[in-house]
Design a protein that fits this description.
It is a single chain. The chain is an alpha/beta fold. The protein folds into 2 domains: 4-159, 3-Layer(aba) Sandwich (Alpha/beta knot); 176-239, Orthogonal Bundle (Helicase, Ruva Protein, domain 3). Helices cover 48% and strands 12% of the residues. The chain has a 7-stranded parallel β-sheet with strand order 3-2-1-6-4-7-5. Strand 1, helix 1 (14-27) and strand 2 (31-35) form a beta-alpha-beta unit. Helix 8 runs parallel beside helix 10 (219-239). The longest helix has 21 residues, at 219-239. The protein is globular. It starts with a strand and ends with a helix. The model has no long low-confidence stretch (mean pLDDT 89).
Length: 240
């Protein structure tokens, strides 16, 4: 369970954070990250989650999403909104089995949950490798934050972990921080070549970020492409 990380982006209500902590204690998960949370104190959490120390002792708070995702190898966005170009799944039990296997073999898997009321934005989903939607009653599909976390973690808990850890992949996958560096080099190349003729090219940059994520690059591959783009930008800039 140590390789599964719950990430709450901009949670607003301390009671919801407490309910998420309780859900994690119920299912045996310990790693919680909060990104830009509303102010809270541990007393409010303890009022909802009795004896929350196993989770709170490892709780980390981040000022932005990029830093919270820096070491994550595979990021899952929990959302009922399909996103162009990203796998969208609601076969949660099959997904849970694959995710436990992935976490055991390739390193940290992040489960990203959006803010209460709004969920995950398009830009936040661009950072994800896949989107998972919980199969609830389509006539009333709305879940609150803690319910979504509990149902997701319950499915992961029910999967029997492999008795023998699977062999590591031939090359470890790139981290989110390394993918961010690659995306930043594409941004610099777009600027250096004046590829975008009007506007800021926001949709193009978002689509490139989704392509980078979907490519599932290894650390070595990401480093090679980043270095190649850096050299291209350097030469273009020098010749201008």
């Amino acid at each position: 369970m140590n390789e599964i990380v719950v990430i709450l982006h901009r949670p607003q209500d301390p009671r919801n954070i407490g309910a998420v902590v309780r859900a994690m204690l119920n299912t045996g998960f310990r790693h919680l990250r909060l990104v830009e949370p509303a102010p809270f104190d541990h007393t409010a959490i303890a009022a909802v989650a009795h004896r929350p120390e196993p989770v709170l002792d490892q709780l980390t708070i981040y000022p932005d999403l990029a830093s919270a995702l820096a070491d994550i190898r595979h990021l899952v966005g929990l959302s009922d909104r399909p996103h162009p170009g990203l796998p969208w799944r609601n076969d949660v039990r099959q997904w849970a089995a694959e995710t436990r296997q992935r976490a055991a073999s390739a390193g940290p898997v992040g489960l990203l949950f959006g803010a209460e009321g709004n969920g995950l934005s398009r830009a936040e989903l661009n950072c994800c490798h896949e989107i998972v939607s919980l199969p609830v009653n389509p006539a009333y599909p709305t879940l609150n934050l803690a319910q979504a976390v509990l149902l997701t973690l319950y499915e992961l808990q029910q999967v029997t972990p492999p008795s023998v850890p699977p062999p590591p992949p031939a090359e470890p996958p790139a981290t989110q921080a390394e993918l961010d560096q690659l995306a930043a080099m594409f941004d610099q190349l777009i600027t250096a070549t004046a590829f975008v003729k009007s506007g800021e090219g926001r949709s193009l940059r978002q689509r490139l970020r989704a392509i980078i994520t979907r490519a599932a690059l290894s650390r070595r591959d990401a480093a090679i492409v980043t270095a190649l783009l850096r050299e291209a930008v350097r030469r273009i800039t020098r010749e201008q």
